[in-house]
Design goal:
This protein is mainly alpha-helical. It has helices at about 15-30, 35-60, 60-70, 70-90, 105-110, 120-130, 135-160, 170-200, 200-225, 235-260, 265-275, 280-290, 295-320, 330-335. The chain is globular and about 55 Å long.
Length: about 350
């Protein structure tokens, strides 16, 4: 009886939340919200995004962030990978239009290159590979914080009107819907930080539920508008191939670039995992504000890249660990929150 099931490979990060994301997309395809239901879902999604960023602000410890600044060279390297090298490669993808990617998919591909890095999965894989975990924590936190300001500005400069009519008005919406709740969370952290720490698991479900609502709303709008008729299996395959090349380039640049800059092995591990990833949790809410009705196609490249980076980095983390002792949380690659 003990042999009735076969364990999944340890390098395959099959997370229930990834399956929930896929299920939400299928639900939107089969039962999209329209009419009054779409208005209700849109309003709920807007409120959920604001609450999500309020929680981000309330959880971020200002003292820890200031302490982490001591390793400024590492953090600047990660920020350069996230907000300089990635966007340059995203701009280069314009050469793939129209033969490989459609203009809409290329806009989503470029947007993917503009969002901040992850926190949870970067920490998890850095831990598995025996890297500098405190540095990964700070680097991911700084990237997420910087992304609230930098991503909208980069999108305004690089996407222009391709981002669903992106304009100064969109920047104002970003400020009201994302930045103000974040600042409010920081200001109230002194009084609610303890409560959030005690109810971390419940609030984690709120985080994930908010993201699922954003995904459902965005993909429902795409289905109602008939936008999915523009995506063929061949285009999806081409998109996956382009993202595989992007990930390979960033993994190489972050690893060998850090070596050229004189970082030790543990720091290079943290730089590679924090500098080569993109955050689904930050990207999806921003896309819903920036792209409006076109958000479904805009977030598709990010969703695909997210799962690809989890699987590839899980393999790399195990190899980086080499013959060193196994991490106490050996299943961390499978259980990390993939929304980060």
């Amino acid at each position: 009886m003990s042999r009735r099931t076969l364990p999944l490979p340890s390098w395959l990060p099959v997370d229930p939340y990834v399956m929930a994301l896929i299920g939400t997309v299928l639900l939107a395809a089969l039962l999209p919200a329209s009419g009054t239901a779409a208005e209700v879902a849109g309003g709920a999604s807007t409120g959920a995004v604001a609450f999500l960023f309020f929680l981000y602000g309330a959880r971020l410890s200002t003292a820890e962030a200031v302490e982490g600044l001591k390793h400024w060279r590492l953090h600047l390297t990660v920020l350069a990978c996230t907000f300089v090298v990635f966007p340059v490669l995203g701009l280069a993808s314009g050469g793939l239009v129209p033969y490989v990617l459609t203009p809409q998919l290329q806009s989503g591909f470029l947007f993917l290159c503009l969002v901040p890095s992850t926190i949870q999965s970067s920490i998890a894989f850095t831990s598995i590979a025996r890297g500098n975990v405190p540095a990964a924590i700070c680097a991911g936190s700084f990237s997420s914080l910087a992304g609230i300001f930098v991503t909208p500005l980069l999108a305004a400069a690089l996407l222009g009107n391709s981002g669903g009519g992106f304009s100064v008005d969109a920047l104002l919406r970003i400020g009201v819907q994302l930045l103000l709740p974040f600042v409010a969370g920081q200001l109230l952290r002194r009084w609610i930080g303890g409560f959030l720490a005690r109810h971390k698991k419940v609030l984690g479900l709120v985080d994930r539920g908010s993201i699922l609502l954003v995904v459902y709303t965005a993909f429902s709008e795409g289905v109602v508008a008939g936008i999915w008729h523009q995506v063929t299996p061949a285009r999806l395959g081409a998109l996956l191939a382009a993202e595989a090349v992007l990930l390979a380039l960033m993994l190489a640049v972050s690893w060998y670039g850090a070596k050229r800059l004189g970082f030790g092995r543990e720091d290079r591990i943290a730089i590679q995992f924090a500098g080569s990833k993109k955050s689904l949790a930050s990207g999806l809410p921003m896309a819903s504000v920036l792209f409006g009705a076109q958000a479904s196609l805009a977030v598709l490249p990010l969703m695909l890249f997210h799962q690809m980076q989890l699987m590839v980095c899980a393999v790399i983390a195990k190899r980086r660990a080499g013959d060193r002792p196994e991490a106490p949380d050996g299943a961390v690659a499978r259980t990390t929150a993939p929304v980060g």
